[in-house]
């Protein structure tokens, strides 16, 4: 009996043209527009060397030569990481103010580096990392020379190996494109819109909602079997649909999500389960019409995606500063954050925190939906 219910619900899900449009065609169209708008911006931006001015407060020519060699030798792929702009101090300040250079590195009298930037950004972060790494190495050499001079040569060789490694490696690492977050949020929206497919599972079990609901309650089939069959069918249909859209972005548009592709798909499957469970719970809640429930569900999803940064990329950092708890409980923010963690940190503790949250919330929504569905009874049908 379960297999019969599952197959019928599978066909119903596949025939829902409106749902297929919103969970497949709409993300593909929007993803294409994102790619057209943002696709080449970061690529051209990242391939350029970072324009930097260097000024010296020291008169030691050996120090000047050493630091100049160090900064000019840093590479990014086949090109130089820093483009040293040789201008006066006054001109450098004016260029920094006009965003014609990204920063001014000052070599202090004690041979350390200081950085002055106009505003934060990816290029500024790279410059800060260079300055920090250099100063830490200089401090280490000075300390070892004073306390353990016999180990100085060993430390110098270790630092030399570290610098060589940094120079040979592309400083971009994984995908540091700030615009990729829009694709993370787009997939998050797509997985949550899977709720529109499972919404009908709950409403079709309510006798006062439709003729299908009346027949379902009048039949000898247990309501739990009908609901679980519809739930599983909706999940299978939506997972396939979301996978098609995700594959289009990764293999068609060549969007670099920044993680292992199998793990990205597995994460998306779990996020889709979260969307399905959300729709299942709302569908079983109360005796409102299906149209009202759908309106509430769409409002929840769009609100969640808006707070996650789908409409405005800076929204999540703003919320993280003002009310960080929202980012921790907002489903769309957690889903997009799971992709971000894969990109930046791999499968670490932060990623698994997102996974546990999505799995836990899916279980809660599913159980609550089942409880709402079982509590409904009718005097007559």
Task: Using brief descriptors, characterize the structure shown.
alpha/beta
Class from helix and strand fractions:
alpha/beta
In what range is the share of β-strand residues? 5-15%
Structure annotation, total helices = 16
Strand order of the largest sheet: 4-1-5-6
Shape: elongated
SS elements, strand count: 6
Helix content class: over 70%
Quote the distance from N terminus to C terminus: 23 Å
CA-atom Rg in angstroms: 28 Å
The main β sheet shows up as:
4 strands, mixed
Mean pLDDT: 80
What are the segments in which pLDDT stays under 50 over at least 5 consecutive residues?
163-173
Secondary-structure element order, N to C: HHEHEEEHEEHHHHHHHHHHHH
Brief overview, please?
With 381 residues, the chain is of the alpha/beta class. The chain is built from 16 helices and 6 strands. The radius of gyration is 28 Å and the shape is elongated.
């Amino acid at each position: 009996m379960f297999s019969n219910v599952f197959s019928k619900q599978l066909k119903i899900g596949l025939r829902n043209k409106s749902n297929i449009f919103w969970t497949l065609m709409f993300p593909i169209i929007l993803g294409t527009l994102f790619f057209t708008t943002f696709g080449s911006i970061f690529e051209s931006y990242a391939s350029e060397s970072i324009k930097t001015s260097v000024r010296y407060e020291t008169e030691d020519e050996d120090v000047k030569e050493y630091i100049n060699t160090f900064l000019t030798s840093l590479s990014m792929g086949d090109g130089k990481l820093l483009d040293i702009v040789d201008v006066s101090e006054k001109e450098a300040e004016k260029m920094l103010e006009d965003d014609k250079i990204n920063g001014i590195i000052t070599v202090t009298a004690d041979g350390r580096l200081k950085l002055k930037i106009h505003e934060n950004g990816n290029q500024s972060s790279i410059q800060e990392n260079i300055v920090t790494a250099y100063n830490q190495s200089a401090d280490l050499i000075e300390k070892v020379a004073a306390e353990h001079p016999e180990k100085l040569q060993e430390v110098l060789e270790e630092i030399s190996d570290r610098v060589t490694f940094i120079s040979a490696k592309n400083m971009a690492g994984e995908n540091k494109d700030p615009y990729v977050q829009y694709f993370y949020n787009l997939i998050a929206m797509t997985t949550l819109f899977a709720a529109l497919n499972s919404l009908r599972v709950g409403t079709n079990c309510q006798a006062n909602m439709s003729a299908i609901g009346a027949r379902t309650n009048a039949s000898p089939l247990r309501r739990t079997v009908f609901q679980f069959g519809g739930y599983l069918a909706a999940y299978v249909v939506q997972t396939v649909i979301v996978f098609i859209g995700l594959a289009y972005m990764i293999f068609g548009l060549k969007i670099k999500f920044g993680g292992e592709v199998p793990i990205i798909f597995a994460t998306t499957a779990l996020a889709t389960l979260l969307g399905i469970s959300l729709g299942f719970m709302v569908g079983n809640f109360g005796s409102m019409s299906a149209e009202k429930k759908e309106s509430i569900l769409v409002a929840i999803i769009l609100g969640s995606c808006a707070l996650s940064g789908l409409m405005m990329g800076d929204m999540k950092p703003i919320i993280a500063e003002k009310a960080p708890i929202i980012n921790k409980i907002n489903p769309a923010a957690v889903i997009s954050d799971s992709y971000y963690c894969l990109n930046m940190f791999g499968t670490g503790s932060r990623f698994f925190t997102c996974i546990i949250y999505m799995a836990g919330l899916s279980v809660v929504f599913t159980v609550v939906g089942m409880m709402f569905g079982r509590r409904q009874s009718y005097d007559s049908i």
